[in-house]
Amino acid sequence: MQDMRPERALQMITQGNPIKRIDSSTYKVKSQSGKGSYLVIKIGEEWKCECPDHINRKVTCKHIYSILFSQTLRQRLSSVSLGFSIPEKPENCLYCGSTAVLRRGFRYNARGKVQRFWCKDCGKKFTLNDGFNRMRNDPKIITVALDGFC
Fold first, then answer.
1. Would you give the end-to-end CA distance of the chain in angstroms?
2. Which one, of 80, 53, 75, 74, lies nearest residue 64 by Cα?
3. CA 87 to chain centroid
4. What are the tens digits of pLDDT across the range 36-91?
5. φ, ψ (nearest 5 deg) of residue 28
6. What is d(CA 61, CA 56) in angstroms, rounded to the nearest whole number?
7. The pTM is what?
8. How far apart are the C-alpha atoms of 33 and 56, rounded to whole Å?
């Protein structure tokens, strides 16, 4: 019989089931049913969870698997390169094609500040499209999620 706990842990993560990190070895994981949460602690190299599955069966439960998956994802995010770069300054205006383009401040959004440009000829302001416009998450998270899906 196949162990379904890793699959359930992945389900928990993909459904946005939050894992709250209390310190480097203590986590609070919401139950999959949404009725409460469980404390998961790492003591040495061993994980302990206060859920009935772990206490009664003495196996690695879905809550521990979800923490292990989230740690792996965090490590992959810190080492991933997006594989593309955005030019520092556009060669032409996006609207009129003029080469008279200047930097004109920044626009601030959830991901940080984005360089804004201004065309001397047509007077329009614009930013460069990095392919992740209007996305609510960090481009690294989106890229890793798509890599893991394929």
1. 26
2. 53
3. 24
4. 899 999 999 999 999 999 999 999 999 999 999 888 877 876 676 655 566 678 88
5. -120, 120
6. 11
7. 0.55
8. 19
Cβ-count burial of 141 within 10 angstroms (0-12 exposed, 13-18 middle, 19+ buried)?
middle
Dig out the tokens for 28 from the structure. Answer: 């609070």
Task: For residues 11 and 103, give the distance between their C-alpha atoms in angstroms, rounded to a whole number.
Answer: 45
